[in-house]
Design goal:
binds coenzyme A
Length: 167
């Protein structure tokens, strides 16, 4: 098991994935906004409402309160919930870096962080863009549902994955 973790950590270091710091809030906000602006499954109104949910303050709070991992071109965060449970949230890859495997590597880095922190199951409230990536990585679909934010409806998917070694 230790060997498996070591391999993940080695790859993380090679990819330049590291913990975000509070002075990166503006850079991360810009990356998130660019990623949402180019998110093809959603129309302009949906993208506008989605993007407006992020501010410099909310990104600063995210960095302060949760585990935020960054790589050149991408960001993801891990929220520790009740004991044994974690939320993988806010995975964004800059449009210029998409479809090169960075999203998968950020998910694997979050999984390694989650294991180290005793999280047994990761849950994700995924966009239409993210759900296929997670299914490819072995996540199970729990529920496809619609949520309304700012008068706009989004189709999202809850997925989860057990991080226990035997699964
Ligand atoms: C979803 C997202 C993070 C994926 O990042 P990425 O770096 O492009 O992902 P990867 O290169 O690791 O993709 C790995 C695999 O996932 C699947 N995948 C990734 N993006 C996909 C898409 N838009 N549609 C269908 N499958 C997709 C593919 O199987 C892909 O493998 P392939 O390129 O060999 O076909 C990125 O598209 C993004 O930031 N989207 C906008 C923001 C968003 O929706 N974030 C999630 C919020 S919940």
């Amino acid at each position: 098991m230790a060997g498996k973790f070591a391999r993940v950590e080695e790859r993380v270091a090679q990819d330049g994935i590291e913990r975000a710091t509070s002075d990166q809030a503006d850079v991360l906000l810009g990356l998130i906004q660019r990623s949402i602006a180019a998110c093809a499954p959603y129309d302009a109104r949906q993208r506008s409402v989605w993007a407006s949910s992020f501010t410099r303050e909310s990104v600063t709070a995210m960095v302060a309160d949760t585990v935020v991992l960054t790589a050149p071109g991408g960001v993801a965060n891990l929220v520790i919930l009740t004991p044994g449970t974690g939320l993988l949230d806010h995975l964004y890859v800059d449009p210029d870096h998409q479809r090169s495997g960075l999203g998968c590597r950020l998910v694997e880095a979050i999984e390694a962080e989650a294991r180290q922190r005793g999280v047994g199951t990761l849950r994700v409230d995924a966009s239409l863009a993210l759900a296929p990536l997670l299914e490819r990585l072995g996540y199970s679909v729990v529920e496809v549902y619609e949520k309304t934010v700012g008068g706009v409806t989004f189709t999202n998917t809850w997925l989860e994955r057990s991080l226990h070694p035997e699964s």
